[in-house]
Write a structure and sequence with these properties.
By secondary structure, the chain is an all-alpha fold. The protein contains three helices and no strands. It starts with a helix and ends with a helix.
């Protein structure tokens, strides 16, 4: 299993646990807020590189 697949499986597991323990809106805030916070912590050059890589993969 690739590294990205392991991360995806872990994210789904954490999301399901959050849905069980927290109200749905709190789980949604956490699931959406963590990636947004991680993106905002990147330098402008890192953000440009991430957008460039994402566009290349979409164009395949």
């Amino acid at each position: 299993m690739s590294k990205n697949a392991k991360i995806a499986v872990g994210g789904v597991a954490v999301g399901l646990l959050l849905l069980i323990w927290l109200p749905w809106w709190a789980s949604l805030l956490i699931v959406l807020g963590v990636p947004v916070a991680a993106y905002l912590t990147l330098d402008p050059s890192q953000r440009r590189r991430l957008r460039r890589v994402t566009r290349k993969e979409i164009g395949r």
